[in-house]
Design goal:
Alkaline Phosphatase, subunit A, alpha/beta, about 10% strand
């Protein structure tokens, strides 16, 4: 890319134009959170010397996996005096939303763009295909003279350059390591004390009484669930103490009056039906920003104010650049909600959910701050799938046991069973997201408005969740190329599939003969979702067992298996599961085999053979291996120790 085009895309000014282009485009190796043992030093970037007398310091204090279970948000159980005090001194955002899991959230935070435009960055643990001009937003702060430090997670789901964005990145990174005492800083501290994994130990003492915990109506009221709630509030109390230490350090260094402090959580969570899901419990996160008196003119409201307009993580990067007085790059898709570049408030925010570790699902959500609207694009796939990491928590294990024993109440079975194609919840009257208003005529206008807003967002963003993982169309450059794929038609076909209406079958059959891969894929998935009602599609589905797209062939095989044609379907699934050239297609095939359960028994020898090969070679996140281990254990009648006690196949 020519220098002029790079600078135009980035929207940077004259100071950046003086920098050598090779520094602007420098690439670095991305760390993986806790696995990044060594500090990463930033590349040298020539930048003007500026003083913190003229620019504010900006500090991000980040917690992991928590909803607004805080006193300042009205939670009467929480003991969070530090956060509550911060809210009283700052601005509290009542309606801040995040992706329901960390890696796609961090992509959005670091880039100022939606992950779904950079497939497969929308999945949990992936390597998104980003355009060459996309930079982590701290790069622009460095260009402007800021010192940037990140302590310490960098799971950005993409090859965004860590050394370019951060002067220092690692467990020891700190604002106090900047060379010039007057140099303004942007520093991030991630606090892992509330991470999902805090629920896994069984003997950690709690400082809260389990008997006094409020159990939401969608969760079963069991001793294990109560114990997890008590433990989680204990961890929140510890978090509050850790934040107090950070704020005390700032005060003792004489920097509190010159530092804008953000506190937020990286995603919702972490009790069952929160993290990974799009209801309010998985997406609504706390956000508080304290502006010292010197920088109060940059605040969107006075100290102690509570802002109702919805914001989301795509808005954070432009907001920080606005506060620092740095030009916001033209490509960023969020809106600054503070500082001189403050934009008009969002009418709606857009949140997505795709593959979570080894398990696929696709959900999309929009909210206007009052209502949450969700579209479930695979309503035939249960909310709860046997996701290995998630089921380490005792709450999910006990919920699974009650489901198998037939002891769930109508309220607790609602989340455990099949999904509706659409969901609509009013946040104020139904914070637990249990009363679906889709069929309520009183809310038809709201439903139509939010349904239309979601459709348009998906079209505008070239939503890569509509593409099978591993497709040549994935990634920003490929999916945004003119005429690459009929995005609007694919969105509409996917919505028809999620309606689960047999009247749409002719549209799915016609789509299977289209030249476009995503149209064929959604045509086959539409047939799968209809199950036996898709019988008239049998002939065309057979033809596509040999489709040039592995994803289409796998989807056709799943649809045929549901029509009783297992003998024809299984060899196709085995073929693509064993294909080492496309990890995405292998993961899709493994998921289909696992969903087929007992129907997949004839493939058991092949699954064992493939699993042996998987264990012998590949490292890292080998999700097909996890799925095969589960499938084989279920088919062989083995008890799935630790992770799925008494769980079996859904």
């Amino acid at each position: 890319m020519q220098r002029r085009e790079f600078l135009r895309r980035a929207g940077v000014g004259a100071a950046a134009a003086l920098l050598p282009l090779e520094l602007l485009a420098a690439e670095g190796k991305q760390g993986r959170g806790k696995k990044a043992k060594q500090a990463v030093q930033g590349v040298d970037i020539a930048a003007p010397k500026i003083s913190s007398d003229d620019k504010p310091n900006i500090l991000w204090l980040v917690s992991e996996d928590n909803d607004p279970f805080l006193g300042c948000f009205g939670d009467k159980t929480a003991r969070t005096p530090t956060i509550d005090k911060l809210a009283g001194e700052g601005v509290l955002f009542e309606r801040c939303f995040a992706q329901p899991v960390c890696a796609p959230s961090r992509f959005t935070l670091i880039s100022g763009m939606f992950a779904v435009g950079h497939g497969p960055a929308q999945h949990m643990r992936a390597q998104g295909k980003i355009p060459s001009w996309l930079k982590g937003f701290p790069t622009y702060l460095r260009m402007a003279g800021y010192y940037t430090s990140n302590n310490a997670k960098t799971d950005y789901n993409s090859p965004i350059s860590v050394p370019e964005a951060w002067n220092e990145c690692g467990k020891q990174a700190h604002w106090n390591k900047r060379g010039e005492p007057k140099q303004p800083f942007f520093s991030v501290f991630n606090h892992e004390v509330t991470h999902e994994s805090c629920l896994f130990p069984e003997n950690e003492p709690a400082t809260f009484d389990p008997a006094k915990m409020r159990i939401p109506p969608y969760q079963p009221d069991t001793p294990e669930m109560r114990a997890d709630w008590a433990r989680y509030y204990t961890r929140l109390e510890k978090l509050d103490g850790q934040l107090a230490e950070k704020l005390r350090d700032l005060e003792q260094a004489g920097l509190a009056e010159n530092t804008i402090v953000f506190y937020y959580s990286d995603n919702g969570g972490v009790l069952p039906r929160s993290k990974r899901f799009l209801q309010e419990s998985g997406t609504h996160v706390p956000l508080i920003i304290r502006f010292p008196k010197k920088w109060q003119h940059l605040a969107p409201a006075a100290p102690g104010a509570r802002i109702q307009a919805p914001v989301s993580f795509v808005d954070f990067a432009p907001t920080v650049l606005s506060l620092a007085g740095v030009k916001i790059p033209d490509y960023m898709q969020g809106r600054a909600f503070a500082g001189p570049a403050k934009a008009t408030p969002n009418e709606t925010i857009f949140i997505t959910r795709d593959r979570m570790d080894e398990r696929y699902d696709m959900m999309r959500m929009v909210s206007d701050g009052r209502f949450i609207y969700i579209r479930n694009f695979r309503p035939d796939v249960p909310y709860v799938q046997p996701l290995e990491y998630m089921f380490r928590a005792r709450g999910y294990q006990t919920w699974a046991r009650l489901a198998r024993e037939g002891k769930l109440t109508p309220a607790t079975a609602q989340f455990w069973g099949a999904k509706p194609g659409e969901e609509l919840y009013e946040m104020a009257s139904d914070p637990d997201s249990v009363k679906n208003l889709v069929g309520d005529s009183a809310h038809k206008a709201t439903l139509d408005k939010l349904r239309s807003a979601l459709r348009q967002r998906m079209i505008d963003l070239k939503d890569n969740g509509l593409l099978p993982e591993g497709s040549a169309l994935e990634g920003y450059d490929a999916s945004h190329a003119a005429g690459a794929w009929p995005v609007e038609r694919v969105v509409d076909l996917a919505c028809l599939a999620s309606d689960r209406n047999a009247a749409n079958l002719p549209a799915f059959i016609a789509a299977l003969d289209e030249a476009s891969e995503p149209l064929r894929w959604w045509g086959a998935q539409g047939c799968t979702i209809l199950r036996e009602q898709a019988a008239p599609s049998e002939a065309v589905l057979r033809k596509h067992l040999a489709d040039v797209s592995g994803a289409v062939a796998v989807a056709a095989a799943e649809a045929l298996a549901h029509l009783g044609k297992v003998t024809e379907a299984l060899p196709v699934l085995e073929k693509w599961l064993a294909n080492g050239e496309n990890q995405g297609t292998a993961q899709i095939a493994a998921n289909v085999l696992d969903r087929l359960g007992e129907q997949a028994r004839p493939a058991l020898p092949a699954m064992k053979r493939i699993l042996a090969g998987e264990k012998g070679g590949k490292g890292g996140q080998n999700y097909p291996q996890r799925i095969l281990e589960h499938s084989i254990a279920v088919l062989e009648g083995k008890k799935l120790a630790l992770v799925y006690p008494d769980f079996g196949h859904l």
